[in-house]
Amino acid sequence: MRVLITGRRGQLGRALVDWGKRAGWHVFAYDLPGLDITRLGNVQEAVRTVQPDLIFNAAAFTAVDRAESEPEQAFAVNARGVAHLAQAADEVGALLVHVSTDYVFDGTSHRPYHEEDPPHPLSVYGRSKLEGERAATQARRHLVVRTSWLFGRGWNFVEAIRKQINQGATELRVVADQTGKPTYAEDLAEALVRLVTLGAQGLLHVANAGVTTWAGFAEEIVRQLGLSLPVVPITTPQAGRPAPRPAYSVLDTSRFEKLCGPLPTWQDALSRYLRAHTP
Fold first, then answer.
1. Residues 68 and 52 sit within 8 Å (Cβ to Cβ)
2. Which residues contact 98 (CB under 8 A, 6 or more apart)?
3. Which of 117, 127, 187, 188 is most buried (CB neighbours < 10 A)?
């Protein structure tokens, strides 16, 4: 299996490279400046050179707040770039696997979101990712996977909390009115490899088991680091972030679980992450 991975230096991209190699695939991984998915010619050149059986798109504009002031760049990467990959995938008959987000939902649900629930994004980021989903489905062979609250190798929520701790914070003020499912990039990458191996296509939700708030996530980080720093819950308006976020974006992963079984709990995933990334 010849596999092309975009976004090689991102949290998911790094994990996909490792899991792809473990699967025995021939992995060709790219990132800027070598591959700019916003440029169709650049994408076509890479795909024609590699002749992949499979394309994983882990490239994304993930700066949720910055997207509010840079919508053109967000849509260029998250939507038009995906359209370029879909076009190039069809040229060589490759399966396109595209990763999307829980932020395509508005958070007004009182139950976990199913794949068939109508999306209604609140932010520029969410709208750009939804348009990217639609672009991915234009590929004849595609798998779109929504995930949530990703953390892995690179900058993420865990490291943001750890940075505050290392800088001597006496308390952590963290949003407590947003609820979701933290997901470890390593577990997501393994799940994607398994789905491809099983021949899955269409739309699936994949996330670690368990539900929490950002404040609950922070409390568990502090606990697993063996500290007693207080976490002060605040509201989304108190956080003063430019982009609106869904209050409840829990993904229903039952369709994925019927194929592969459940992923480990987010607490277990956090424990493995900290063991691997604590000096």
1. no
2. 57, 82, 85, 132, 133, 136, 142, 143, 144, 145
3. 188
Backbone phi, then psi, for 197, in 5-degree steps? -60, -35
Catalytic residue numbers? 125
Q: What is the per-residue pLDDT across 141-179, written as a single tens digit (0 to 9) for each? A: 999 999 999 999 999 999 999 999 999 999 999 999 999
Tell me which residue of 230, 191, 229, 235 sits closest to 20, measured CA to CA. 191
Domain ranges of the chain: 2-155+183-209+251-264
What is d(CA 130, CA 68) in angstroms, rounded to the nearest whole number? 15
Cβ within 8 Å of residue 88, ≥6 positions away: 40, 43, 44, 46, 47, 48, 55, 94
pLDDT tens across 60-90, in order?
999 999 999 999 999 999 999 999 999 999 9
Class of the CATH-defined domain 2-155+183-209+251-264 = alpha beta
| Residue 151 dihedral angles phi and psi, to the nearest 5° | -140, 140
CA distance linking residue 54 with residue 185, whole number of Å:
19
Tell me the whole-structure pTM to 2 decimals: 0.95
Looking at the predicted structure, is the pLDDT value of residue 278 above 90? Answer: no
- The structure tokens listed for 254 are 């039952």
Radius of gyration (C-alpha) of the chain in whole angstroms: 18
